[in-house]
């Protein structure tokens, strides 16, 4: 079960809505933060703290592709390979991430440090290539810049 | 009034409804797929599209409300094209494995495609592949066939209230899964199975064993498991039950079933069924012919009667047997054996409570229809979990809660955990004081009602005695407030609180509330014919129809028909019979269709008592633990093998029909009438209907009742009969020095949803769902002993000990641990002693201290 701080955080979210089901999506993000991904246990914790049936929690979570439905590394890199990013070398960057950090596209590095998700446009075509590391946004990427950035994500 | 035109026909409606229902009313069929009559309109599949004048696009008939002046067309070229298109899309990912699918022949998709569908598909890509899942013991899932109509999910959520399954994923990868994605781990009602239009949810009990059109017989009958009396349909092939299904909209259950009713039928075909009579010779039970066995019984009972008098003989009847069986049983005991010592295991709860309430408030006080429960504003639940004891009745409470009723639970009811609006937790084993306090609260507002002077007097005395003494338990005041403002109240009483040595205190308080609030009272009944057993006279004090046996006038009427005399004084109740056997005042006992050795508290005492008898006859369908001790065992016929009637807990009499032929065993009533004849009291019936004819002639309650009337569903209380008024019971004395129950753990009786007495252990499916007794205990208790889920423990009480795995249940918050008695070996009753409530004669099971030790190295 979640610890008291997390429970309090969820209580805070619940308090914002007339219907506790409205607190489900934000609570799933919290569970993901606590457990690393939405495991059965994570979803059970959400179900208990919101007093919702487990199947309702799982059904809702599974609808959204931006939750982590599999175990992921400590940090999740989401790199765009759509047109603009591709033209400006995103695919080279994918190779670089694999050779330099051992993280394959849509996989996790052996040391559990990074997961790489290839994603569609993140609205940074003007400053491509671009990526998200967890929730932080970076653009104008190059191999060197990626190295510098990832230094901050141990 | 709404008048609309559908397919050029004018239709007038007296209440608002959808276009689909309006068309149906006029006999016009509109195809549907996501719609189901047991569920709310959904509007997901669009197969029900119709044209409506002045509406630009096709409309869903299932969600469109009929309006005055509407002009609707249900078939046209455009509509057909649309339906064909929808079906083509549905088939894109469908495996089209009809030749192999169990549903073929009764599949809604197959029928729709046959009528509206394309004959060829244009889709050439890869279809989605999802392997059929057999990870659950009961339900298989084939998600390639799923059309995502969500009928199953809506059934599970909105009707069953279990919320065990959901649509997982999205788009063409959507599929239905339980939370665990493997085992369902749910209430196993199978109601999702009923509504799935295709072969996506399948029952593993019969998968690939027959096709729907190979059924030779389809028989409508009543469930054999509990007092709700759900209607169901038994489908038979080659004299073997293939499956049990409900009929939508019919019976008290309106198409719903629970796990026992739907999946529990296999016991009928169990290998362990008794095939021939057995007679004890040289200490062992040996096969015998019917005439040999019946001669032994008749001779031995006659000998005991002649030597020691009828009062030394006793009979235990069965709440699983039909009214016909029980009627003939008491007639046989009263006339041929000359004894009124007739009772049943119902005395441990239902019969005791029933007698108390009728004594106080008059006959028929518990005759309330289940529909009344659904429509109540407030429901007070006491003493057991209705969703486990009487599951389909539990659904009515859930439905009421969904509609906004106040559901107040006194104690624990796990199946209502997500539905109750208030829970009041009494001190352990001291429920009576809470109900008394609620009653006093209500009485101080409502005051004397005046219709029943002796009840008013009792209420005045009681409230005078306890007013001002507050328990301080949370929720009592709120309960009183809720009850006082409620315009319609139902009280649902479970038998656990009857099983106290001062159980009558709680009963008086419940009776008082029923009286003051004019509430509907429902008694939970874990057996299918507890009420019928009482009404047909299988009680020591009443003849059929609830007429006191010690009133000569009443007795005389029965004697005239039976052409034999009936003893004039009341007989012994169940626990007194056991006691009598133990002290050798009872010499011979006749047990029909029950297993007292396993089903009465104080198992070892019962065993000792039966061991002391000179003669024990057991009539059953299995060699139960009780039958193993018998001198003669007579094989009976079971449910679906014979006709008869049951009276359910709302006192509705319903017809059971014969569905399968079997070569061994005889109807209980037939065995008894043979014996009666051999003992000099002829009782001539050639079929069960003859028994009903006699009952309808002698019992003032069943007057003129016929099978036709019963089959038509009209046999509702008080039939054509005359109920009696109540008599007075003393107001219970308050035990001022109430005991506190502070030991570490107390043993209590668990009533699992998936089992029923010792019968369900012969059902393979139910054994797969729930294979052994577990000790259900709260988190705090488990933590104190360092126990986790599945650890094996030894339970010891002063009466005995047994081993079981631990199951931790967060809803239990007191020092009770729950164990069931449904499995072979030792169960809860073997570990208990009992004390008898002097008023109700029910055994008290409170205060049984239990020591729990972890068994290391296993579990
Ligand atoms: S069997 Fe009943 S409880 Fe289980 S998933 Fe189906 S509808 Fe829900
Ligand atoms: S499993 Fe059956 S009832 Fe459930 S969504 Fe699929 S097709 Fe509909
Ligand atoms: S609720 Fe009772 S009568 Fe109905 S199906 Fe279940 S066990 Fe049978
Ligand atoms: S039946 Fe009307 S939309 Fe499915």
Topology:
The complex is a heterodimer of chains A (154) and B (859).
Chain A: H1 4-15, H2 24-35, H3 40-50, H4 54-63, E1 75-80, H5 83-87, H6 90-101, E2 114-119, E3 131-133, E4 136-138, H7 143-150
Parallel strand pairs in A: 1-2
Antiparallel strand pairs in A: 1-3, 3-4
Helix pairs in contact in A: 2-3, 3-4
Chain B: E1 2-6, E2 9-13, H1 19-25, E3 49-52, E4 59-60, E5 71-73, H2 77-92, H3 108-116, E6 139-141, H4 151-160, E7 165-168, E8 175-178, H5 191-195, E9 201-203, E10 217-222, E11 231-237, E12 240-245, H6 259-263, E13 278-281, E14 284-287, H7 290-308, E15 313-317, H8 323-336, E16 342-344, H9 350-361, H10 370-374, E17 378-382, H11 386-389, H12 391-402, E18 406-410, E19 422-424, H13 431-446, H14 453-466, H15 476-485, E20 489-493, H16 503-517, E21 520-523, H17 530-535, E22 542-543, E23 547-548, H18 552-562, H19 574-582, E24 588-592, H20 596-599, H21 603-611, E25 615-620, E26 632-635, E27 644-647, E28 653-656, H22 668-678, H23 688-698, H24 707-711, E29 746-749, H25 764-769, E30 775-777, H26 779-784, E31 792-796, E32 801-808, E33 816-819, E34 835-836, E35 843-844, E36 851-854
Parallel strand pairs in B: 1-5, 15-16, 15-24, 17-18, 17-20, 18-19, 20-21, 24-25, 25-26, 29-33, 30-32
Antiparallel strand pairs in B: 1-2, 3-4, 3-5, 6-9, 7-8, 10-11, 11-12, 13-14, 13-26, 22-23, 27-28, 31-32, 31-36, 34-35
Helix pairs in contact in B: 2-3, 7-22, 8-22, 8-23, 9-16, 13-14, 13-15, 13-16, 19-21
């Amino acid at each position: 079960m979640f610890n008291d701080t997390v429970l309090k955080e969820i209580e805070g979210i619940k308090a914002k809505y007339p219907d506790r089901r409205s607190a489900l999506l934000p609570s799933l993000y919290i569970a993901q933060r606590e457990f690393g991904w939405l495991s059965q246990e994570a979803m059970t914790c959400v179900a208990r703290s919101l007093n919702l049936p487990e199947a309702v929690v799982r059904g809702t979570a599974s609808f959204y592709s931006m939750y982590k439905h599999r175990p992921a590394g400590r940090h999740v890199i989401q790199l765009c390979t759509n047109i603009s990013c591709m033209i400006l070398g995103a695919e080279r960057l994918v190779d670089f991430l694999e050779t330099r950090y051992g993280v394959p596209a849509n996989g996790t590095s052996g040391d559990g440090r990074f997961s790489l998700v290839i994603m569609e446009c993140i609205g940074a075509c003007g400053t491509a290539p671009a990526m998200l590391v967890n929730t932080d946004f970076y653009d104008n990427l190059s191999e060197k810049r990626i190295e510098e950035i990832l230094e901050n994500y141990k | 009034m709404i008048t609309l035109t559908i397919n050029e026909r004018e239709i007038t409606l007296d209440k608002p409804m959808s276009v689909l229902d309006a068309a149906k009313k006029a006999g016009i069929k509109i195809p549907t797929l996501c719609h189901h009559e047991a569920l709310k309109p959904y509007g997901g599949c669009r197969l029900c599209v119709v044209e409506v004048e002045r509406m630009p696009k096709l409309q869903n008939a299932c969600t469109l409300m009929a309006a005055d002046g509407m002009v609707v067309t249900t078939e046209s070229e455009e509509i057909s094209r649309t339906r064909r298109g929808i079906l083509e899309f549905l088939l894109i990912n469908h495996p089209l494995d009809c030749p192999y699918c169990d549903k073929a022949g009764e599949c809604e998709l197959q029928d729709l495609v046959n009528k509206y569908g394309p004959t060829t598909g244009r889709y050439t890509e890869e279809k989605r592949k999802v392997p059929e899942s057999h990870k659950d013991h009961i339900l298989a899932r084939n998600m390639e066939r799923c059309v995502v109509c969500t009928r199953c999910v809506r059934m599970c959520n909105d009707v069953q209230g279990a919320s065990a399954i959901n649509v997982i994923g999205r788009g063409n990868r959507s599929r239905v899964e339980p939370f665990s994605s493997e085992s369902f781990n749910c209430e196993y009602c199978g109601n999702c199975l009923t509504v799935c239009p295709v072969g996506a949810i399948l029952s593993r009990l019969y998968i690939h064993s027959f096709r729907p059109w190979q059924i030779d017989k389809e028989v409508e009958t009543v469930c054999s498991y509990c007092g709700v009396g759900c209607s169901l349909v038994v489908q038979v092939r080659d004299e073997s039950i293939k499956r049990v299904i409900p009929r939508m909209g019919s019976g008290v259950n309106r198409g719903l079933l629970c796990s026992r009713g739907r999946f529990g039928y296999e016991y009928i075909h169990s290998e362990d069924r008794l095939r021939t009579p057995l007679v004890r010779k040289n200490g062992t039970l040996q096969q015998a012919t019917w005439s040999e066995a019946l001669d032994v019984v008749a001779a031995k009972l006659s000998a005991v009667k002649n030597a020691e008098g009828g009062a030394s003989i006793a009979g235990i009847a069965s709440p699983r047997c039909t009214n016909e069986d029980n009627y003939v049983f008491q007639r046989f005991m009263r006339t041929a054996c000359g004894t009124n010592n007739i009772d049943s295991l119902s005395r441990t709860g239902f019969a005791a409570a029933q007698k108390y309430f009728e004594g106080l408030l008059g006959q028929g006080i518990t005759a309330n229809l289940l529909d009344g429960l659904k429509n109540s504003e407030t429901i007070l639940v006491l003493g057991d979990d209705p969703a486990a004891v009487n599951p389909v009745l539990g659904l009515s409470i859930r439905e009421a809660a969904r509609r906004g009723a106040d559901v107040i639970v006194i104690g624990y009811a796990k199946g209502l955990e997500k539905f109750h609006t208030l829970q009041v937790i009494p001190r352990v084993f001291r429920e009576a004081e809470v109900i008394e306090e609620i009653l006093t609260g209500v009485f101080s507002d409502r005051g004397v009602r005046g219709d029943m002077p002796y009840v008013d007097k009792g209420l005045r005395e009681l409230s005078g005695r306890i007013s001002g003494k507050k328990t301080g338990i949370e929720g009592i005041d709120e309960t009183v407030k809720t009850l006082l403002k409620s315009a319609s109240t139902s009280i649902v009483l479970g038998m656990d609180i009857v099983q106290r040595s001062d159980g009558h205190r709680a009963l008086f308080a419940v009776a008082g509330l029923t009286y003051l609030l004019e509430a509907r009272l429902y008694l939970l009944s874990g057996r299918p014919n507890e009420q019928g057993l009482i009404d047909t006279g299988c009680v020591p004090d009443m003849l059929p129809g609830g007429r006191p046996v010690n009133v000569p006038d009443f007795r005389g009427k029965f004697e005239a028909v039976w052409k034999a005399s009936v003893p004039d004084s009341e007989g012994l109740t169940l626990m007194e019979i056991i006691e009598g056997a133990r002290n050798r005042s009872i010499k011979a006992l006749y047990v029909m269709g029950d297993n007292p050795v396993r089903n009465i508290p104080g198992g070892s005492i019962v065993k000792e008592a039966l061991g002391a008898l000179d003669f024990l006859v057991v009539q059953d369908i299995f060699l139960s633990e009780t039958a193993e001790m018998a001198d003669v065992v007579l094989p009976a016929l079971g449910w679906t093998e014979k006709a008869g009637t049951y009276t359910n807990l709302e006192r509705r009499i319903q017809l059971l029909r014969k569905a399968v032929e079997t070569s061994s065993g005889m109807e209980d009533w037939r065995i008894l009438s043979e014996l009666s004849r051999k003992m000099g009291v002829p009782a001539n019936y050639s079929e069960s209907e003859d028994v009903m004819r006699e009952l309808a002639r002698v019992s003032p309650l069943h007057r003129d009742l016929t099978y036709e009337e019963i089959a038509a569903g009209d046999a509702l209380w008080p039939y054509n009969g005359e109920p009696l008024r109540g008599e007075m019971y003393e107001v219970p004395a308050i035990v001022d020095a109430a005991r506190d129950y502070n030991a570490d753990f107390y043993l209590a009786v668990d009533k699992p949803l998936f089992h029923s007495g010792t019968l369900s252990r012969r059902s393979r499916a139910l054994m797969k769902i729930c294979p052994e007794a577990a000790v259900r205990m709260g988190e705090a208790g488990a933590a104190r002993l360092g126990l986790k889920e599945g650890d094996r423990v030894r339970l010891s009480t002063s009466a005995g000990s047994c081993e079981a795995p631990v199951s931790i249940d967060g809803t239990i918050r007191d020092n009770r641990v729950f164990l069931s008695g449904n499995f072979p070996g030792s169960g809860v009753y073997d570990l208990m002693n009992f004390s008898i409530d002097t008023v109700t004669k029910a055994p008290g099971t409170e205060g049984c201290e239990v020591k729990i030790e972890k068994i290391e190295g296993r579990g």
